[in-house]
Alkene reductase (Colwellia ponticola), 155 residues
Amino acid sequence: MNKLFTPYDLAGTPLKNRVVMAPMTRTRTLNNIPNESNALYYAQRASAGLLITEGLPISDEARGYLYTPGIYEDVHLPGWRKVTDAVHAKGGKIFAQLWHVGRMSHTSVHGIVPVSSGKVPAVDTTVYAWIEPGKAGPVQPSAPRALETEEVKRV
């Protein structure tokens, strides 16, 4: 416990302590653009030595849930600037967790079958997607299709 609240150098990034906030997907971002709610959420946790963002889809197809903040288009960047500025104003450090959810998605999220390393569907779990038009909630992920080698750059 003595070391937990002491400074630490993480590969050249000085941290004020060794507390790390793990990523948590919150599904609270309309239009997938980070907003004031995101900035407030992360700023309130800036006393940790390091914050790791919720998973940030690397493409629209990489999203598996509704309302997740993206980082794959220029329109997302001003929102993330607000978040990082808010965290830095409180003396915090923040890293982005980049992701592609693979089979943990539903066709209603982006209108196509999810891609994964194979065709095996995810079972005994749910994703937050459209139950019906205008009504979101937990649904069983759609069965994926295998990603082809030539598609890797696209996703």
